[in-house]
Design a protein that fits this description.
Among the domains are: 82-181, Endonuclease III, domain 1 (Orthogonal Bundle); 278-349, Orthogonal Bundle (Arc Repressor Mutant, subunit A), CATH 1.10.10. The radius of gyration is 25 Å and the shape is globular. It has helices spanning 2-26, 35-40, 55-69, 82-92, 97-110, 114-118, 122-128, 136-152, 160-164, 171-181, 191-201, 213-223, 229-242, 284-296, 306-313, 321-334; strands at 278-279, 282-283, 304-305, 338-341, 346-349. The longest helix is centred in the N-terminal third of the chain and has 25 residues, at 2-26. Helix 3 (55-69) crosses helix 13. Helices cover 53% and strands 4% of the residues. The strands form two sheets. It has a three-stranded antiparallel sheet. The termini are far apart. The protein is mainly alpha-helical and 351 residues long. It contains 16 helices and five strands.
Length: 351
């Protein structure tokens, strides 16, 4: 009996979702221009329409939800240390949030400020980066810390031009620091916010569709509430991560679905496969990470013979292993991650 009731409930829920989607598709609203275009009587870029007439309503919905349901992280405090914001943003670029939340406290304990981080050699910083992946980020972060110490007396600058002059800081990281650390009124556009804005303000067809860059910048500039950039953008990131996901958006539970032009109507589409250099069925970046992990386990004065490394990497030996591994090691050496004793054919983390 219980199973039958559950089945009927699922059928009813599916019918509600399909009906809602069909109603949204049938309500063919006339094109609505952006706020700027309405003032000047012009349409938006590329002739397509972006509905920004509900901005105040969307702001209230987003911030209202965030006030009650914001995710809590080490780096999210009312007046965060700019150093912590920089470190967390660097970690978050290609690492899951849960992993950063787990690893950040120990990293900050070892490197509490720019001075401590700047003093770290390559091996020390790479060891501290364990579990984060993409080890080049650790070296770029350390190099940035050295520039902050040398040029700004160990204090992260609070202007866009100065931040852009630091090694390793791209447009997103600069805007995130200005918004989250210094509470400046700037737009913060990561891939999650781009996806949210695209679906919210355009009637899209598939989960892969996204608003053109020019329109995204226009929407991003118009939509965030002045004086609350940090709160707004972190709220959008949370909603995108929890509800407006890349492949299977949870429109039924989304707190802003009522204002979303794409809600319940997106057909799920798989992203195109992107090939990358691989060997033995694994991407080279995985092999690089595996090599670094093996070298991390060595003591500071220990080295590993190349023959031992090959045995640790491969269960069976194949003829192409030696030249392929040689190319990988050269790349790691160029990146400053390992160093090699040519006379003895041994390697270790770069000191």
């Amino acid at each position: 009996m219980l199973c039958r009731l559950l089945h009927l409930f699922r059928l009813l829920l599916h019918a509600v979702v399909r009906y809602t989607a069909s109603m949204k598709r049938s309500e063919k609203a006339p094109p609505i221009e952006t706020v700027a275009a309405l003032r000047t009587g012009r349409t938006t870029a590329n002739g397509s329409s972006v509905d920004l007439t509900t901005v105040e309503r969307v702001q209230a919905m987003v911030l209202g939800w965030y006030a009650a349901h914001a995710r809590h992280f080490v780096w999210r405090v009312p007046n965060p240390d700019p150093y912590v914001v920089l470190v967390s943003e660097t970690m978050l670029q290609q690492t899951q949030t849960a992993r950063v939340q787990e690893r950040l406290p120990s990293f900050l304990q070892q490197f509490p400020d720019f001075t401590a981080l700047a003093a770290a050699n390559n091996a020390t910083i790479v060891r501290a980066w364990q579990g984060m992946g993409y080890n080049n980020r650790a070296l770029r972060l350390r190099d940035c810390a050295r520039a902050v110490v040398d040029r700004f007396a160990g204090k992260l600058p609070d202007t866009a031009d100065d931040l852009r002059s630091l090694p390793g800081l791209g447009p997103y990281t600069v805007s995130a620091i200005l918004s989250f650390a210094f509470h400046r009124d700037v737009i913060v556009l990561d891939v999650n916010v781009q996806r949210l804005y695209s679906r919210l303000f355009l009637n899209l067809q598939t989960t892969l569709d996204v608003m053109p860059e020019a329109q995204l910048l226009q929407v991003a500039t118009e939509v965030y509430p002045r004086g609350r950039s940090s709160e707004w953008h972190q709220a959008c990131m949370d909603i995108a991560a929890e509800f407006c996901t890349a492949r299977s958006p949870r429109c039924l539970f989304c707190p802003i679905a009522k204002a979303c032009h794409s809600a319940f109507g997106l057909a799920e589409a798989a992203p195109p496969h992107v090939s990358e250099p691989s060997y033995r069925g694994k991407p080279n970046r995985i092999w690089r990470g595996r090599i670094i992990e093996l070298l991390r386990d060595l003591g500071p004065d220990q080295t590993m013979a190349l023959a031992e490394l090959r045995n640790r990497l491969f269960v069976t030996e194949e003829e192409p292993d030696v030249p392929w591994l040689e190319n990988i090691l050269r790349a790691l050496e160029r990146d400053g991650l390992i160093e090699r004793e040519q006379a003895t054919d041994r390697i270790r983390l770069h000191s």
